[in-house]
User: Fold this.
Amino acid sequence: MSQRSSTLQAATDSAVLFASRYYEVNGKLPNNEEVKVFIEANYAGVVDTYDVKIVGENIVVSAEVNNGSYVMGMFRDDLKGVKAQSGAPVSKDNVLEVVMALDTTYSMIADDKIGGLKIAATDFTELLMGFNKNQTSVKIGVVPFSQYVNVGLHNRAEPWLSVPADSVKTLPAQCFDRQDVVSTSNCHDATGYADGVPYTYQQCDYTYGPVYQVCEPERQVETKWYGCVGSREAPLTLTDNKPKMPFPGMMADWDMTSWECPTAIQPLTNDKAAVLAAISGLQARGETYIVEGVTWGQRVLSPAAPFTDGVDPKKAKGDVHKVMVLMSDGDNKASSQLPDYYGHWGTDAAQSDAWTLDACKLARKAGTEIFTITFGKEVSTPAKKVMKKCATNVDHYFDASSSAELAKAFEKIAGNLTRVRLTM
Assistant:
């Protein structure tokens, strides 16, 4: 191919990308004159014939320069005519559904990672929602997770939940023995960990006084549901199959939102303000259980209950693209207590790693494209391997050691989702 042909082809390639973006934003093609101006600006010469049209499911731009032409401001009558054509796919009803499954555990307070996450997720949302026009429908959901997820108090009466009524019980008066500390010795600083975050406390040898009896009067204790749910028994633990088999609500006589229970899930929506509000409200608390992020991320994307905002690809007229962006800043710490109990106060990290990979496999099998991000400097090598295996492929995995790198990772993912690829 001559340099002249290559230059015209490159100009036509650029023009079809311009036409595709114009179509997404305006719902119609640019006129021929606008395409001509774009081609000639990139070709640096006069184009004699030009056209833009839709052929099948592609936007096609063609251009031709006849024998003899102005090139770089000079007329050349010794040049042969050249032609170029380029195309890019376009669908009249493209649907992009993205769920961000975000680790909001206590370790996210270190280096204000929770603040960096909010900025990156906000920019990601702003960029994707900018494509929510005409033939492109964009919906975004947010699934904050710690060792549980919060499905929202407003869903309490849904048939896919089993939540007992809040209750108050009376505890009888009781007496018990107590010993007070009268002196300490050999005190020194010791290190403890909360969701992998180190903290310092004082450890001492204690000398206790005599035993005496303390009596407490009768008191009332309230047991409430704070929005978090446990796991269903196998084989439904990792799936959204059989929604009539309900998810158990976690009842507690303490405020679960102070530690284990994160902020509520934001289902898929095209309401940008709702998504941004969910991101702004993220709080760092609880222990890491990545299984919850993956399973509930897929449940949000799925058209089946418990959340039914996702489009069913089998019933959609156009292309449906379902995407999960899974972010975690550490290793699995909590685990399921099945089959003995539906809670997640276990400590079997190996089981949680295996279940994370199983959940990712099920999501990919369902057609979900998965991007994964490890965030921060404290993520272990084994944890990075789990997240890398969870992704659709190695190019879908990002390791971000800082908030700046996290923002770049989200930006690259957004670019991947919005990029128009040449097909001709």
